[in-house]
């Protein structure tokens, strides 16, 4: 029995019969009503001309404190902590949602003004003041982003295949490290890189769509590598072994077993990577510039893109400025729609390509 | 079909770590050889050296000889992929390819290798393999459904069908029933006994009743001591191993008095 001396003696712990199976609980509507009260108090402060930020903060803090103290008295400390953490997590969620909602409301509200047929079919050639459209910028964005995807998807997927299936030792470690470094490159640096690279061949002042595509691929490749790498790692090793045991060589195993199994995830990752770079402004500002008319040849001169178009319409509006500002907002709204559509496509793609267990 | 394996003085390493030492055994064609022994003694490692799957682990290697009839599996210029063409394998957990249908899973050995075949020949091969695996009647109406939609026991028989569709000479099985219920296990045991008419079968199992039921020869692996490499203690006819083994460690293990 000597080994038991360190366990608490019965006197240290409450007798089991003293620990009831039930504990008190707040009235059913207590928490929602407290919340309502805090929100009303917050609104009252708002009416009294306090700043909205303070009102929300005080309402949240008031609710949390009231419920915590009340719950602690009635329900005990574990339940009270639970309620506090719930309140904090919910507040954090709402706080994170705030910028998104705010941006959406502003952009939709101001962007709808110019969502007409002219906006989608015309370019800005010869337009001063009202009218004009972004046809040239839509095409420019699609062409440049498409080229960027064309460059980065093969490079990214092949790099990920090397890292997961072949890479051992130093080279693989270096590649992983530099992919991480690339993830952190500021987008304007990517633009400067593309400019410097093409300046070597074409001399100073060169602007081309393909330069923008190169700049965007610098940003896109690490995202594709990362996403593909994670997906390839998720493919169970048993499937590779099953293929090897059937005398399938390694490259065919990767091509016909590993890649198809991971296809859904890879396609989703690629789509999200495109969505990530399609709204980039800074690198395109440097590498591609802007133009008012249609130029759909990425190897010849400046092109328009939605993000850069939006930027220029805002920083150098005409006189009066309103038509330019309207166009800027509408272009921004269109970009948001494209990004959202890409996200939806990504979800659809992952559902369509996912290995089916039942059919 | 059905070749003899002759292993002599095989040492198996993971990098510098000697995992299994000095295995010598003869595996007769058209028989079932069961490998038993405690976990971590190198049964599966040994099994994977018989089709050169062992060397898929980085820096893993072996020393010694594995003869398949007259050819050394570890001889110079031997292509591991071709070895695996002759020596098939079934794994512990059923692993049908999730992107493929039942049909494509059975045909995987050919399709993944880009082998062209007439549709009717392919159909016949798939049916024959599924029949040999006692699965045809259960799946003949859903050949185009995903293979991963089958039950665990059916999936394992699908994997066996996939392995025998390429008509190997030797079939290795690494605890093929350990993830299955008794009914499915029974089905697979019956299947193994049928398959030994055409194939040389080597099976690793933790279930000693299973070894008794299906095998002709049983090999007992054990660690020499803690921290020592695993080794083949004794190999003999199954009835002898389970009734009158030559080694006391074997007797302790098969009678449940191990340790």
Automatic annotation (TrEMBL), chain A:
It is a multi-pass membrane protein. Its main location: membrane. It is found in: Cell membrane. GO terms for molecular function: phosphate transmembrane transporter activity. Residues 138-346 form the ABC transmembrane type-1 domain. It comes from the Bacteria. Pfam families: BPD_transp_1. InterPro entries: MetI-like, MetI-like_sf, Phosphate_PstA, Phosphate_transprt_permease. Keywords: Cell membrane, Membrane, Phosphate transport, Transmembrane, Transmembrane helix, Transport. The keyword Membrane applies. The keyword Cell inner membrane does not apply. Gene3D superfamilies: MetI-like (1.10.3720.10). The chain crosses the membrane at residues 54-71, 83-108, 137-163, 175-198, 204-225, 257-278, 328-349. GO terms for biological process: phosphate ion transmembrane transport. GO terms for cellular component: plasma membrane. Belongs to the binding-protein-dependent transport system permease family. CysTW subfamily. Part of the binding-protein-dependent transport system for phosphate; probably responsible for the translocation of the substrate across the membrane. This is Phosphate transport system permease protein PstA.
TrEMBL record, chain B:
SMART domains: AAA. GO terms for cellular component: membrane. The keyword Cell inner membrane does not apply. InterPro entries: AAA+_ATPase, ABC_transporter-like_ATP-bd, ABC_transporter-like_CS, P-loop_NTPase, PstB-like. SUPFAM superfamilies: P-loop containing nucleoside triphosphate hydrolases (SSF52540). The keyword Ribosomal protein does not apply. Keywords: ATP-binding, Nucleotide-binding, Translocase, Transport. It comes from the Bacteria. Residues 5-248 form the ABC transporter domain. One of its GO terms (biological process) is phosphate ion transmembrane transport. GO terms for molecular function: ATP binding; ATP hydrolysis activity; phosphate transmembrane transporter activity. NCBIfam families: 3a0107s01c2 (TIGR00972). This is Phosphate transport system ATP-binding protein.
């Amino acid at each position: 029995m000597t080994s038991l001396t360190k366990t608490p003696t019965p006197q240290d712990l409450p007798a089991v019969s003293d620990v009831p199976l039930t504990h008190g609980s707040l009235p059913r509507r207590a928490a929602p009503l407290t919340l309502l009260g805090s929100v009303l108090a917050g609104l009252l402060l708002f009416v009294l001309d306090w700043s909205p930020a303070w009102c929300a903060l005080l309402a949240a803090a008031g609710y949390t404190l009231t419920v915590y103290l009340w719950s602690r008295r009635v329900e005990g400390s574990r339940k009270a902590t639970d309620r506090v953490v719930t309140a904090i997590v919910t507040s954090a969620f709402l706080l994170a949602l705030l910028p998104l909602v705010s941006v959406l409301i502003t952009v939709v509200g101001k962007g709808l003004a110019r969502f007409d047929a002219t906006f989608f079919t015309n370019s800005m050639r010869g337009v001063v003041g009202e009218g004009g459209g972004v046809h040239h910028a839509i095409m420019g964005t699609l062409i440049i982003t498409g080229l960027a995807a064309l460059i980065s998807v093969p490079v990214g997927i092949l790099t990920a295949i090397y890292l997961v299936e072949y890479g051992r030792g130093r080279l693989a470690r270096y590649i992983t490290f530099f992919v991480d470094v690339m993830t952190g490159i500021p987008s304007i640096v990517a633009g400067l890189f593309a400019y410097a690279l093409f300046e070597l061949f074409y001399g100073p002042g060169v602007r081309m769509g393909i330069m923008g595509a190169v700049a965007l691929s610098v940003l896109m490749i690490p995202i594709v590598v990362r996403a593909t790498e994670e997906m390839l790692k998720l493919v169970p090793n048993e499937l590779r072994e099953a293929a090897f045991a059937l005398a399938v060589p390694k490259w065919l195993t990767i091509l016909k077993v590993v890649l198809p199994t991971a296809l859904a995830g890879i396609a989703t990752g690629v789509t999200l990577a495109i969505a990530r770079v399609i709204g980039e402004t800074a690198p395109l500002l440097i590498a591609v510039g802007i133009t008012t008319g249609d130029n759909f040849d990425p190897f010849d001169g400046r092109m328009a893109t939605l993000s850069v178009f939006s930027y220029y319409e805002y920083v150098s509006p005409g006189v009066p400025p309103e038509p330019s500002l309207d166009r800027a907002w509408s272009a921004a709204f269109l970009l948001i729609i494209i990004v959202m559509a890409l996200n939806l496509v990504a979800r659809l793609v992952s559902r369509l390509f996912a290995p089916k267990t039942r059919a | 079909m059905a070749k003899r394996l002759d292993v002599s003085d095989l040492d198996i390493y993971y990098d510098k770590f000697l995992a299994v030492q000095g295995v010598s055994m003869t595996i007769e064609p058209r028989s079932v050889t069961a490998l038993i022994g405690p976990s971590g003694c190198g049964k599966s490692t040994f099994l994977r050296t018989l089709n050169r799957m062992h060397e898929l682990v980085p820096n893993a290697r072996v020393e010694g000889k594995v003869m398949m009839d007259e050819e050394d599996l570890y001889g110079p210029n031997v292509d591991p992929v071709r070895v695996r063409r002759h020596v098939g394998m079934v794994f512990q957990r059923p692993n049908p390819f999730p992107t493929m249908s039942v049909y494509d899973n059975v045909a995987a050995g050919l399709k993944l290798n880009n082998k062209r075949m007439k549709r009717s020949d392919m159909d016949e091969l798939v049916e024959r393999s599924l029949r040999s695996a006692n699965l045809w009647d259960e799946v003949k109406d859903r050949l185009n459904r995903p293979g991963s939609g089958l039950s665990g026991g059916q999936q394992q028989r699908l994997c066996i069908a996939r392995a025998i569709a390429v008509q190997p000479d030797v079939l290795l099985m690494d605890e093929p029933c350990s993830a299955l219920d008794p009914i499915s296990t029974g089905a697979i045991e019956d299947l193994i006994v049928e398959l030994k008419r055409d194939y040389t079968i080597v099976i690793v199992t933790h279930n000693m009743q299973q070894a008794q039921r299906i095998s002709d020869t049983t090999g007992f692996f054990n660690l020499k001591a803690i921290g020592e490499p695993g080794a083949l203690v004794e190999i003999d006819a199954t009835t002898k191993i389970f009734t009158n083994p030559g080694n006391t460690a074997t007797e302790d293990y098969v009678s449940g008095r191990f340790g």
